[in-house]
Amino acid sequence: MGAGGGATNNLIRSLRLGDPSLELVGCHSNRFTLVQSQADRSYLVPSVDHPAFVESLNALVEKEDIGLLVPNSDDDVRGVGARRNEVRCRVFLPRCEVVDLCRDKLELSAFLESRGISVPATCAVTSLEGIEEVFDRLDPRSPLWCRLRSGQGAMGAMLVKNPEQARSWIRYWEDMRGVPATMFTLSEYLPGRDFACQALFKSGRLVLIKSYERLTYLGGGAHPAGFSSLAALSKTVFAPEVIEVCATAVQAIDADVSGVFCFDVKQNSSGAPCLTEINAGRFGLSTSIFDIPGRHNTAITYVHLAFDELVDIAEEYDVAEGYYMVRDYDTVPAVVHSDELFEGVNEVWAGASLA
């Protein structure tokens, strides 16, 4: 699902890299996005919330003899997961309760904190008039991170230093986007290194997990805070303390969990990793950096697990250090090792010899 969009096109590339014999069929509810689909064949279907969605999907499953359905957006994961018993092929998704908990960043933070898992100190915004009280509760932490309880891509996120900045930002979203103040949270700002992880679980067991660090941000200069959730430059890293936080969090949520999970983790001022977000049931836009380097391709491993096939992975944490992913708008992400990063690149400096 989501064929033609960046996340699914990247996933299709990863699947083909892992097993070129796979037959990949794509679908989307937007015919314009579907034009760019990288699938072998592509179909226009109703959106996941349309009354005809399941019937149309099952017609496609029958026509193409589909073995596995892969929803690849938060809305598609939620919609398919809620009606998985009506879909006439396999799906490999977490339980609906897990997906819903992970979608609500405030509820997720409270749940993880109650289980002793490191998260940033977070408070709900109950009204514009009560923002001073929230700042007092989070004192002396400043600045604070103001963001929506749900959504992706740092939607609605802003770094604020005082109550008036927070109030003005939230009021803008109320007036211009119809988003109520109660959809926002204020939390401790984490100034340290910024990590992302992707993991596969099967029946409660961690099967495979990989990690990278965001170094620069795509479109960060246009964002009020100066950064975003999407890396322009990232690097594979060995970060076992980050991996432990992610794996422990998912297993605390559901001891019998299955599916793919993506994580955002940042270090606090003391250098401790804090889990800020979990995307349950879908692959991330940056899946290329999890599939090209290392011993195991995450995307194709997902397929094997979905079909209950034997997966022989001795070390769950698959580390391949020194690989960079370089990304820009309207380009395919490039994943290269540091030794290859400047191959074919010549330097020219004013006043220097070009011999």
List the main descriptive attributes of the protein structure presented here:
seven-stranded antiparallel sheet; 355 residues; alpha+beta; Dna Ligase, domain 1; 23% strand; 3 domains; single chain; 11 helices; 30% helix; 15 strands; D-amino Acid Aminotransferase, Chain A, domain 1
Structure report:
With 355 residues, the protein is of the alpha+beta class. 30% of the residues lie in helices and 23% in strands. It has three domains: 6-91; 121-188, ATP-grasp fold, A domain (Dna Ligase, domain 1, 2-Layer Sandwich), CATH 3.30.1490.20; 194-340, 2-Layer Sandwich (D-amino Acid Aminotransferase, Chain A, domain 1), CATH 3.30.470. The protein is built from eleven helices and 15 strands. Helix 1 packs across helix 11 and helix 4 (74-82) runs antiparallel to helix 5 (96-103). The longest helix has 15 residues, at 163-177. The chain is globular and about 60 Å long. The model has no long low-confidence stretch (mean pLDDT 94).
